[in-house]
Amino acid sequence: MELLSSYTFLIVAIGTTILSFAAGVIGTVSVIKGQSLIGDAIGHATFPGVILAFMLVGVTDTLPLTIGAIIFGVIAFFFIQLITNHSKVTLDGALALILSSFFGFGMALKSYVQGNPGFSNTQGIDDYIFGQAAYMLRLDVWLIIIASVASLLLFMIFYQQIRIYTFDPVYSSTIGINPALVNVLVLSMTILLIAVGLKAVGAILIVNLLIAPGVIGLLWSDRFNIVLLIAGLSGAVSAFIGTYISTAYAGFATGPSIILVMSVLVFISMMFGKRGLVTRKFNLRGDAT
Amino acid sequence: MDKDIIKVNDLIVAYDDEPAIWHLNMALKENSITAIVGPNGAGKSTLIKSIMQLIKPVSGEVWINGSKSRKALKEIAYVPQKGEVNWDFPTTVLDVVMMGRYVHKGWLKRPNKKDREIAMSALRVMKMEAFRNRQISELSGGQRQRVFLARAICQNAGIYIMDEPLQGIDITTEKLIIKTIKSLQQEGKTFLIVHHNLDTVEEYFDHAVIMNKSVIAAGDIQDVWTKENIDKAYMEMGAG
């Protein structure tokens, strides 16, 4: 419990908590659209960007590595578009291809770098796979806060458009909303949050911050704004507890710890949420859906 | 009823080199209730989607109120086919209807009390008031269509374009929708509706566009609704 008053822990926990709140809110859009795995593919695809950035600058500084991640996130998305628009490969096929090939490329680069005496201080790179919040610096936390607050602000400004577009894309374009713009907006926020969250949660598991909270929210409410709020809060709570666990017990990576807490919340929601299994069993008189 | 409120000139639309609409010309008379009729694959939905600028035509022009700009679309309330919507979206009936107010609010302003009242009165017209807090996925096909029409009414546009609004709904809803459309016509509104049931065309509509890739016949229902024209659309060119 001493940890709770530790300055370092608090700084790190604030970072992961805000990140998970923002990721929970923004990720809910793709959960509703049934496109959650785009985030997964992009999350994995950022990894080679991190390594290449490290190879260029020679140090594991957050800023260049984050920029590398963003660039590769964008490249991955363009490849996904290219494949789905110009071939018979379906979206899930394209996502699987991009996810594995980009991540494989990243792992190959990583072993090259770590086996090469020309590069030093390579141990920090591993943190980008599973995340290690304990090694986060103040700059890392600031980046997370800036990206999260900016994303949430944009989300609030474009709230009406995002809401109408997600529900009814065709109608939204007939009333003057630009669907392509909304899509790019949501995607940019997603890539940004993935990139700044990599060091804390890691490339493999970061997608969970985007998906699990939305799933939890949808299990508790039928209102878009309340779903978003529950998503944000459940993300934040999981991140705080997960970060605590990983800081308190050496050897627990942050990503897995947060995801485990989130999974417990998902399970509880599936049982007891508004449409939960237990709720339905004991509330048969309620809505008959 | 003399003014052409929408004009389509020499429209060609193709999907993957396959023409869906071929040299089509038509005009929508102001204050009319016009049916678009034709066999499957005749390009009916494609025509209204081209008017709504949801599809980019190969060539041709669409004029709305004498304008070709995107802004003119705000004069149209579009009622989509049911399948085009994400029904799992967490939202209530009232929220969906309120979306119709967006055109009048711009993108930063939130809907206020007055918008809510307008939405509620639109729901009243469609007899869906009691369902206002219902999650949309819990509605029947007919109720969903009523909500869409309520949203269109809420938009308070001059022209309504509807894609098969009477498809797969109960007879009570069908009668209510037609009654509402006729009373909105009294208020000066214009309707362009894709319709599939040939038996009810004469009863529901005063104008018709009979088409199969291009227009077979169009105009006053009395003049165009002949066996000859219908056969021509459904038999001779019915390559559906």
What is the gist of this entry?
Chain A has 289 residues and is mostly helical.
Structure description:
The complex is a heterodimer of chains A (289) and B (240). By secondary structure, chain A is mostly helical. Chain A has a single domain (2-282), classed as ABC transporter involved in vitamin B12 uptake, BtuC (Orthogonal Bundle), CATH 1.10.3470.10. Helices cover 78% and strands 0% of the residues of chain A. Chain A is built from 13 helices and no strands. Chain A is globular and about 60 Å long. With 240 residues, chain B is α/β, with parallel strands linked by helices. Chain B has one domain (4-236): 3-Layer(aba) Sandwich (Rossmann fold). Helix content of chain B is 33%, strand content 26%. In chain B, the strands form two sheets. A six-stranded mixed β-sheet of chain B has the order 5-6-7-3-8-9, sandwiched between helices. In chain B, helix 4 crosses helix 5. At the A-B interface, helix 7, helix 8 and helix 11 of A face helix 3 of B.
Gross morphology of chain B: globular
SSE pattern of chain A, N- to C-terminal:
HHHHHHHHHHHHH
How many domains of chain A? The number is 1
- Proper CATH architecture of chain A: Orthogonal Bundle
Look at the structure and give the mean pLDDT of chain A.
91
Count helical runs of chain B: 9
Structural class of chain A: mainly alpha
Task: Report how far the terminal alpha carbons of chain B are from each other.
Answer: 33 Å
The CATH superfamily title of chain B: P-loop containing nucleotide triphosphate hydrolases
CATH homology superfamily name of chain A: ABC transporter involved in vitamin B12 uptake, BtuC
Structural class of chain B: alpha/beta
Q: What is the chains' assembly state?
A: heterodimer
Indicate the topology:
The complex is a heterodimer of chains A (289) and B (240).
Chain A: H1 7-33, H2 36-57, H3 62-86, H4 91-114, H5 127-130, H6 138-157, H7 159-167, H8 169-174, H9 179-201, H10 206-220, H11 224-248, H12 254-272, H13 277-282
Helix pairs in contact in A: 1-6, 1-9, 1-10, 1-11, 2-3, 2-4, 2-9, 2-10, 3-4, 3-9, 6-9, 10-11, 10-12, 11-12
Chain B: E1 4-15, E2 18-29, E3 33-37, H1 44-51, E4 59-64, E5 76-79, H2 93-98, H3 102-105, H4 113-125, H5 141-155, E6 159-163, H6 171-186, E7 190-194, H7 201-204, E8 207-212, E9 214-220, H8 221-224, H9 227-236
Parallel strand pairs in B: 3-7, 3-8, 5-6, 6-7
Antiparallel strand pairs in B: 1-2, 1-4, 8-9
Helix pairs in contact in B: 4-5
